[in-house]
Amino acid sequence: DTGVSQDPRHKITKRGQNVTFRCDPISEHNRLYWYRQTLGQGPEFLTYFQNEAQLEKSRLLSDRFSAERPKGSFSTLEIQRTEQGDSAMYLCASSGLAGREQYFGPGTRLTVT
Amino acid sequence: AQSVTQLGSHVSVSEGALVLLRCNYSSSVPPYLFWYVQYPNQGLQLLLKYTSAATLVKGINGFEAEFKKSETSFHLTKPSAHMSDAAEYFCAVSESGGSQGNLIFGKGTKLSVKP
Lengths: 113, 115
Hints:
Shape of chain B: globular
Oligomer: heterodimer
Helix content of chain B: under 10%
Structural class of chain B: mainly beta
Shape of chain A: globular
C-alpha cells in the first residue's frame, strides 16, 4: 500500500490554459474525493466518485471544472480556461466503501499567472 | 447542515506544555468527527476519528480528543507538546452523517511550539 499519489505536485500555467491533474487512490478504496484548499483555509469539497460513478458534482466551482474516473481506479480533475482565482492546492482523498476515514494525497499546487 | 468552527487560528505553546485545540461542530444528524494534521506543502494526515463509539478517542502521536454532545465540542489535546507537533490542525465533520462521505473542514489552527 503506497498511499494516495497525485501528479504533478506543482503546476504553473498561464491564464486561459487548460490543466489536468491525476490522482491514484489506495488500490482497494472504492471512493475518491477531490478538494480545493486556498491559503489560510481548510479544504473545500468539490466532487466524489464511488467506483466509476460520480455521485456528487454540484459543488464543482464552475462549469470549467470537470472530473472523471473512467475505470474506477485513477481519477483526473480538469480545469479549462484557467483564471488567477483557480490558484490553490488541489487535494485528492480516497476511502473504503464505508466512507468514513479519508486518506489524502500530497496535493497538486496550481499557480495561474 | 453540518459545520465546524475552530476557535483560534494560531496557538502557541512551549515544548512540554499542554496542547489544546478547540473545535465545535453543528450537525443535524449524529456526527462523524475527525482531526487531521497538515505539515507545510503536504497533504492531510488523519490523527483520530469519532464515529459514535467511545467518546474519548485516542489517536497517533499522543493526541486524543473527547466528544461532548452537550457542548457540541470535539477538542484535541496532547499532554506534552513536542517541537515536531508544529503544524496546522484541521477539525472536520462528515457531511450527512457519513452517508455521502465528504468532509466539511474548519479553517484550521496553526500550532507553534517554542523551545
